[in-house]
Amino acid sequence: MSDRPVVVYLTGWCRSGTTLIGNLIGELPGAVHVGELRYLWRHGVLGDGTNDTCGCGTRVADCPLWSAVLRRLGAPDGVPDLLARQERLLRTRHVGARLAAGPDTTAARADLERLYDAIAAESGARIIVDSGKYPAEAAALCGSDRVTPYVLHVLRDPRAIAESWRRPKSYIPAMPAWRSTAYWVAFQQASARVGRAYPDRYRRLRYEDFAAAPADTLGAVLADWGLAAAAPVTADGTAVLSPNHTVTGNPDRLRTGPVVIRPDERWRTTAPRATRYVAGLIAAPWLHRYGYRLTGGGPTARRDTDAPVPR
Fold it and tell me: Less packed terminus of the chain by CB within 10 Å, N or C?
């Protein structure tokens, strides 16, 4: 492995299990999970976020790691420009443009590279796990020659996600099924587009497959990329999580100690029929592609039509 930092970027739509998967990869020797890094500027500098607790338990602005990273980058100088470039260049609709060479792609990539370089320098980590989930960030990053990027596209049945979004969290309101599923479709399409452009750097993992066999499925991805011989989870699905430095994300990122990973199919009985119907109707053209049944039962055997199945 080269001296360049390795960045494992997790993409896909929210409520798909990226927080847990990111925390697991962050347990590898020499790895740090930084959560949804995109929000560092708002939470760590501007202080205008609603989810501004670092995974270590302090406010992001007070965290020893993030305060050192921000000092190294000269924050708050330049933060308004960084946020403006995020909005202008790194939305989901910008994936195609970020896969193409040009000054805007170079500028967006340089912002990410400087940030990852600072994290590597201050943390001493050789593997940085970013669960930002924005496919355009993954697209810009894949052309980097300053970091070694890998993209892990995590997806989950959109009906399970619609049920999760039906309930608000302390830092984010609820979302109707039609909206969450429209985002799901857009994020899957955009993430798959990155995979078609960079098949060697991309792998896709269904949350259902991961939850059923976390050691095998995640371990295959890590071994395929040469990052680890095995995943930091036992064959029976038990992992021990340490405090982390996630900028933001699902509150489950704050859990430490032993965690048992098991399939969660509760949505099949708790989701109202209307939620399941709306989500299934909007996502129907993509359900079969990703190995989900339209009616009844669980997911079919693992499918991967856009990239090699992790070996």
Answer: C
> Looking at residue 304, what is its pLDDT?
46
Cα–Cα distance for residue pair 94/36, rounded to 1 Å: 19
Nearest Cα residue to 290 out of 199, 152, 185: 185
Longest dimension (CA), the chain: 54
Query: Which of 196-210, 249-263, 272-286 is least confident?
Result: 249-263
Whole-number Å distance between alpha carbons of 209 and 261: 11
Per DSSP, the three-state class of 186 is: helix
**CA 293 to CA 287: how far, in whole Å?**
7
Q: Identify the pLDDT of residue 51.
A: 84
Rounded to two decimals, the pTM is: 0.94
Q: How far apart are the first and last CA of the chain?
A: 20
Please name each of the domains of the chain with its CATH number.
Answer: 6-287 (3.40.50.300)
Question: CB-based contacts of 269: which residues, under 8 Å, 6+ apart?
Answer: none
Q: Is 259 exposed, middle or buried (0-12, 13-18, 19+ CB in 10 A)?
A: middle
Please report how the helices 103-123 and 64-72 are oriented relative to each other, as an axis angle in degrees rounded to 10. 130
Give the model confidence (pLDDT) of 289-308 as tens digits: 999 998 866 676 654 434 33
Please say whether the beta carbons of 132 and 37 come within 8 A: yes
Instruction: Give tens-digit pLDDT for 166-206.
Output: 998 878 899 999 999 999 999 999 999 999 999 999 999 99
Answer whether residue 270 shows pLDDT above 60: yes
Q: Which residues contact 21 (CB under 8 A, 6 or more apart)?
A: 10, 131, 152, 154, 205, 210, 218
Vertex 282: Cα angle to 206 and 159 (nearest 5): 45
Residue 187 phi, psi dihedral angles, 5° rounding: -70, -35
